[in-house]
Amino acid sequence: MEMDKFLSDCTIIGNFKEVPVHLQSTINTFQYQCHALGIQVENDLSLNSDVNFPFKFISSDRRTQENLFSFWSDDPLRQGSESVIQAATGLMSVHGRSIGGIDALNAPYLSSASAVLTLLGCIATAIGHRRGLNSRGFQTSMVSAGLLCVGQYLAGATVNEYAENIPPGVHDHSQRPPFCSEDGVLFELETLSPEPWRRFWSALGISQEDMSKGWQSFLQRYAKATSYLPRTLISKISSSKFKDIELLASESGVAVCRQRTLLERSTDRDISILLERGPWQLRPEVINNEIYKDSSENILNQDTSNNFITDQSKPLSGLTVIESCRRIQGPIAGHLLALLGARVVRIEPPGGDPLRGMPPLAGDCSARFDALNHLKEVREIDIKTPAGRAEVLSLVSTADVFIHNWAPGKAKQLQLDHEHLKKVNPDIVYNYAGGWGILDNDVHYPGTDFTVQAYSGLASELSHNNKNNGGTLYTALDVLGGIISAQGTILGLFRKFFNNQGCRVDTSLLGSATLLTQPIIKSIREKNQKPEFQKGKIFKTLDGYIILEFSSSNELIPLLDELNLTVRDLEQSNIDEKFEKILKDKNVQEWLFIFEKHNIPCSQVIESLEELPKQPRFKENFQTSNYSRVTTPWRFK
């Protein structure tokens, strides 16, 4: 079945012709995904979208949802923007740990994540309706997306004991990956084990002490979003030519991936497919069981036990997900499905996942690990043994979803690939959350966040006009990739409940990078002007920093009296200097009241993540345990 027909009997209705400027990137990505899935998009000018975006979703059983996307979760009528919400939710702070100070990710990151979560909510609600859920729709927000995206970092910063607060700019950004060779080539170096690392640096003459310090910092970059390497490592690389580094890396067993541009990425053989079909590869399976009864009949009367909804507020209640994933991408997917009500059974090796012990701890478990896994049941299974594989097959036989993010080819080697699993459960939704997607057999680097950032051109784009020299050490693709993987699972479940088909779903970090950069890649391929990312302006106040989003000084004319400025002042070349001086006279909250009153998108810039749960406007977004947990990004009505 063609991908563009996957949801062709569904419809989105919204005011797509009058989208507020700051919402445009989110709605563009939302429409792009709808187009890729074949969802019909209709325009309705009567749906007011001055600040937020109300819209309707009509599923193939003709049930209609009334949904709302906004910037803020507590007040849908408050103005916002991509960079304002990055500042408000601490994403700028996390990104700033490795780039020398607070700054925005130079991409519509939260806009893209919000679009994925919004469409995911539509499809999940439709599945819930099909299964007996009485919901009129849902509300979600960019703030909810932003807090979800920093959830594991927030856990580490708010744990009761030994909280880990890493200020933005704490480390010299010149002593972090990526590396730069003598001949000016930027590149990522990747290895998941210490021995190749030792061989590589030993061959370059680095001392055991500096090599060990470097490994510990390098290893922690996925958890801490910073990696402060000894100066000797940076100096040695910067005095070596790239071709020599590549040769040594090959001999040592480490991977070296040159940082490519989006221009280079735009010519890759998988790009046309990804741009047309979106970040998912969806392959429905036709099964021979009786077609589900029409939605006009109460599906709760059927004897298929896993159709039952036990919690009327959650659309996946009563469904079972088997998850065998490490690190971030796969666990986030499972976490989102659990937030939607699914029972998620997590398979871990005997003795448990080693990341459970990574400090800081919340009780006897890593706070960061717990943030993504606390809703899941755990089964310790050695999947390398026949008995372990038999146990996995037994779990899968009564489940609805199986998710893994093993290395390419491992599933087939273990005989736990889709072909084997559908023999015990023909309508299983099988989800592979991988690194390279279609290019799995062509790209020979580890499919990890920072390597994919470099290969995809995203790192180059994120560093554009920034003082850092490549990418972000915030795990941008792991997080977005996990959200997209959850969305792919929901698409598979839609097929299961509406078309009585199992489904294989493949998503990847490379597909996630492509979703994030697709507007620029399209402009390159079509030889159009490249869309520029607009950042808000950050100013120091009496007690902290504020971010303001305005494109012209004329937008400040209604505030002249409160700013003690004149129209002539706005025309002067030193207006920013005057503006900075004025803003230092009041504290952040006083200025927020003034700018919000005049509908200027603004926020306090969160510098330390421990400040987030103290924000009154975020009180519904957190649960307090022995650290602050981020709640569900959807509010079902």
From TrEMBL:
InterPro entries: CoA-transferase_III, CoA-Trfase_fam_III, CoA-Trfase_III_dom3_sf, CoA-Trfase_III_dom_1_sf
Example of a GO MF term: transferase activity
Alphabetical list of Gene3D superfamilies matching this protein: Crotonobetainyl-coa:carnitine coa-transferase, domain 1 (3.40.50.10540), formyl-coa transferase, domain 3 (3.30.1540.10)
Keywords: Transferase
Residues in coiled coil: none
Pfam family, one: CoA_transf_3
PANTHER family per UniProt: ALPHA-METHYLACYL-COA RACEMASE, SUCCINYL-COA--D-CITRAMALATE COA-TRANSFERASE
Protein name: CoA transferase
Native source organism of the sequence: Microbulbifer variabilis
